């Protein structure tokens, strides 16, 4: 989800391909970025985007549901619009109801005709959207504490773990761990309260893994950044900032969320992860950064609510927090629109001018290309870019356009540091 979103103008109206429903309170803000539904999906019941912001800013009190049935119902309502003609429930004629595609149980249609008309597009993603529909319910187990499940010690040195195919075999047989979640009270309660039958166990096992992979993808991507810039966590403690951290990384965050780094670099000198962003959600990780180096062999997570460049002025420059050895940006989304690039500009220039090693992730190759172009225009030196070997395995529906090919969190990355050397900036001369 894009972060550092500037406040919306009063006149804000959703674009043509966004979906807005007064009743369910859902905006799809960015056509290319899945996002807001997550929040609704997990916790909230909101009238409009203003209320959403109030909630993420901690101003809205007591947004609760009477029961789980209601929570899951509200959540499902955010998906109720005709995929073909975009009609919302309140625009239906009397007696008409939105009917769900029986194959994926994900998208809705107002009439048979609409469904027929849409099928040539929808059939390309229907199978995938079935998984998406399962995942968005199973994801609730992240908030009940069933997920993430615990992982094993690394049996291979970090240099030999280059992707999921290297990482997974170190986990051994996860059957008993997954079966415990499958037979757990929360899983049972989930399927009792949603308006669809429980998928079979093999579907659920795969879904649990996909959701776990999204969680781990963030940690392993940080690890990849450490390796990429040859930072040595055995030589000195490392300070890592997550710039533009949003509710995705901070809602329900636990102080143990980055412990996989302990398995990746056993016996390290101490790693501090500091989340900074205007949408950081209050919770146990909301604590000041370390002033002195933290405990050896531990990962210490803290959070700061605010824009990154402001944080730099208020905290780093006053030496109330260490300068980062690495800055991570999960889906900054600054390619998406002018407002976002303006929000990110001071941060990008600051990171460039202080020569800070950075790794940013994207949802797709298209985003990667647009982001690269923006960074190059800022004369930032790109070190590397490409598909992320630790991409999330969980498909994300492009909310307002379900028939678009689903995307994956952290699917691509860019490593960059410092300013382009001058010879690269100049036009090639006759001798080149
Ligand atoms: Zn329709
Ligand atoms: Zn379908």
From TrEMBL:
Residues spanning the signal sequence: none
Keywords carried by this UniProt record: Metal-binding, Zinc, Zinc-finger
Chain ranges of the MYND-type domain: 82-126
Lineage: Eukaryota, Metazoa, Chordata, Craniata, Vertebrata
Protein name (record): MYND-type domain-containing protein
Gene Ontology terms, MF aspect: zinc ion binding
UniProt entry tagged with the keyword Thylakoid: no
One Pfam family, short name: zf-MYND
Biological source species: Collichthys lucidus
InterPro entries: Mito_gene_expr_regulator, Mss51-like_C, Znf_MYND
